[in-house]
Specification:
The protein has 328 residues and is an alpha/beta fold. It has two domains: 183 residues, Rossmann fold; 117 residues, Rossmann fold (3-Layer(aba) Sandwich), CATH 3.40.50. Helix content is 42%, strand content 18%. The chain is built from eleven helices and eleven strands. The strands form two sheets. The chain has a seven-stranded mixed beta sheet, with helices on both faces. A four-stranded parallel beta sheet has the order 7-8-6-9, sandwiched between helices. Strand 10 and strand 11 form a beta hairpin. Helix 2 crosses helix 3. The protein starts with 6 loop residues before the first strand and ends with a helix. Bound molecules: adenosine-5'-triphosphate. Keywords: Allosteric enzyme, ATP-binding, Cytoplasm, Glycolysis, Kinase, Magnesium, Metal-binding, Nucleotide-binding, Transferase. It catalyses: beta-D-fructose 6-phosphate + ATP = beta-D-fructose 1,6-bisphosphate + ADP + H(+). Its EC number is 2.7.1.11. It is found in: Cytoplasm.
Length: 328
């Protein structure tokens, strides 16, 4: 039988995402509800190695459900990639009397947690906190909905100025390997074209399509481009090519960048964070380990961490078709 859990640590790691604070709050309050001790680890695995822990009770997480970022701070930690680093981290956890860990982060964070569990048989549960929605085993990752709404809001504003000046804007949104933000924000903001890593449209077809839009009477256009789009090496090269090959448009670029990571989480992300925190702690109490919590068809689920890391988060083909029809 697994050891009874009395003290749980929670940390945020990797790239930050809106809703991380709400998830920490949920973990802390669920621990309090079940009369378990809880500690926060500052700065992800860096803080674990340095023993930078802070006791957290139900009241210490007041007023943070609506705050972006993560009050525990996040970090990328090279030392945790080594067995020596993880050994020091384990010593710190034992010294602090911690007997289980909730990690909030992306696939890198989960990989580190899996190594930690394999080496020390230490119970771990992951909460997928990343704006890219690039983890399988959950319909949505924490922070994705907020990032999407931030992107749509920004594109709406760019649309205003594009329209006033008859401009063609390339708007780059986050997503190196997956185009979830680009596709959904593009459809939501009524973009003329959407370029995602999963589909290579080809630059000639893009120019032809923009040409057709212009002939059909459009005086301004928005092209939403995911960072990892396959056509150009960068959005600026795309802009240069279209500038040289399409007449009659003043072409501009707007890179939304880190603003997509910040901001107050949407209601969806706050609720998701609250549900995930409860599921994470209660799974540890039930003796489960090496799982990621998620929602599939709005039901809380557990997916083996290994599967969550390796699995593909597939782009919605039906939505690609919708976007094609909408850009007619
Ligand atoms: P995001 O999706 O936002 O990038 P992430 O969790 O994938 O988040 P990473 O920087 O890849 O972010 O990973 C976070 C931390 O997890 C790393 O800084 C490192 O400490 C740890 N980590 C990542 N990969 C490994 C690994 N193979 N072995 C041990 N630890 C790892």
């Amino acid at each position: 039988m697994s050891k009874k859990i009395t003290k749980i640590a929670v940390m945020t790691s990797g790239g930050d995402a809106p809703g991380m604070n709400a998830a920490v709050r949920s973990v802390v309050r669920t621990c309090a509800y079940h009369e378990l001790e809880c500690v926060g680890i500052h700065r992800g695995y860096d803080g674990m190695i340095e023993g930078d822990f802070i006791p957290l009770d139900a009241r210490s997480v007041r007023g943070i459900i609506n705050k972006g970022g993560t009050f525990l701070k996040s970090a990328r930690c090279e030392r945790f990639r080594t067995t020596d680093g993880r050994q020091i981290a384990h010593n710190q956890m034992v010294k602090a009397g911690v007997d289980a860990l909730v990690v909030i982060g992306g696939d890198g964070t989960f990989t580190g947690a899996l190594h930690f569990n394999a080496e020390f048989d230490f119970p771990v549960i992951g909460i997928p906190g990343t704006i890219d929605n690039d983890i399988s085993g959950t319909d949505r990752t924490l922070g994705y909905d907020t990032a999407l709404n931030t992107a749509v809001d920004a594109i709406d504003k760019i649309r205003d100025t594009a329209h006033s000046h008859d401009r063609l804007f390339f708007v780059e949104v986050m997503g190196r390997d997956v185009g979830h933000i680009a596709l959904n924000a593009g459809v939501g903001a009524g973009a003329e074209e959407i370029l995602i890593p999963e589909e290579d449209m080809g630059i000639e077809r893009l120019v032809e399509s923009l040409q057709r839009s212009k002939i059909s009477g459009k005086s301004s256009s928005i092209v939403v481009v995911a960072e990892g789009d396959k056509i150009g090496k960068s959005v600026f090269e795309l802009k240069d090519y279209v500038d040289d090959n399409l007449e009659g448009y003043d072409v501009r670029v707007s890179v939304l960048g880190h603003m997509q990571r910040g901001g107050s989480p949407t209601c969806y992300d706050r609720v998701l964070a609250s549900r995930m925190g409860v599921k994470a702690v209660e799974s540890l109490i039930e003796g489960k380990s090496n799982y990621m919590v998620g929602t599939i068809h709005d039901t809380m689920t557990l997916t083996p961490l290994e599967q969550a890391i390796k699995g593909e988060s597939k782009i919605n083909k039906e939505l690609i078709r919708v976007s094609e029809i909408m850009t007619t």
